[in-house]
Specification:
It contains 9 helices and 8 strands. Strands 1, 2, 3, 4, 5, 6, 7 and 8 form an 8-stranded mixed β-sheet that branches. Helix 2 packs across helix 3. It starts with a helix and ends with a strand. The mean pLDDT is about 95. One of its GO terms (biological process) is methylation. GO terms for molecular function: methyltransferase activity. Keywords: Methyltransferase, Transferase.
């Protein structure tokens, strides 16, 4: 059903929750400025790459994405910035740098927080020093509604804020700032997906596509059922 998944996600503006405000906040906390070198790790179709380029008009930005069509979409989306923004298909785990800022929105869990931060340590500039901004699924604490448990059932490693902080500390990093991503940034992701699903439903639908559409519809419904409790935690960290 992988092919059908990417048919659904084709041409969506972003591949996860977020907003330019999140990017701007992280840049301010990280103190990134001027001709900085920035990596967007797991860039998807380039929504945050574009936001980074707009917020840092002198920076040199690399964007890497495992799914080739997303990398191509990022390159096309950011062509207006000229050679200072480059996008390519590749693994976000294998980047040399050095970078003043590594931005990773909702993708670090593919590597693991501790493992990913540890692996990127040598990719950061040392004099600046380099910083990492990443968002990670988080439980808000207290008794979670059934919809929240259903939504996150495929990510058993999800934890509360202190659990994420412990993984950061285990990698030898300190936290410079943090904020919850909840509500509208998720709508920025799911509203276009919902419109895309509705459009695809109007055409001829194979059994495989029907199954993929049902999965997307169930995910959207689960988010809507607990939109005020489903969150990412955005952190800016630096090596100790």
């Amino acid at each position: 059903m992988e092919e059908e998944f990417f048919v659904i996600h084709r041409d969506l503006p972003r591949e996860g929750p977020g907003s330019p405000e999140d990017v701007n906040w992280a840049i301010e906390v990280a103190g990134t400025h001027g001709e900085a070198r920035v990596l967007d790790a797991g860039c998807g179709p380039g929504a945050d790459t574009e936001a980074l380029a707009e917020a840092l008009p002198e920076a040199w930005i690399d964007a890497v994405e495992m799914h080739g069509p997303f990398a191509e979409a990022t390159a096309a989306r950011c062509a207006r910035f000229g050679p200072r923004v480059k996008a390519w298909q590749g693994s976000m785990a294998e980047q040399e740098g050095p970078y003043d800022l590594i931005w990773c929105a909702g993708a670090l869990y593919f590597l693991g927080v501790t493992e990913g931060l540890s692996g990127w340590r040598d990719s950061l500039t040392r004099a600046s020093p380099g910083r990492i901004a990443f968002s990670e699924p988080v439980l808000l604490g207290g008794e979670e509604p059934e919809a929240v448990r259903t939504f996150w059932e495929e990510y058993p490693a999800i934890t509360e804020r202190d659990g994420i902080a412990a993984r950061v500390a285990a990698a030898g990093y300190r936290i410079l700032g943090e904020r919850a991503i909840i509500g509208q940034p998720w709508a920025n992701y799911y509203d276009p997906m919902e419109r895309r699903v509705a459009m695809l439903r109007q055409g001829e639908v194979t059994a495989a596509m029907d199954a993929a559409l049902r999965e997307a519809e169930a995910e959207i419904a689960a988010w809507k059922a607990a939109a005020d409790r489903i969150a990412y935690l955005l952190m800016v960290v630096e090596p100790e």
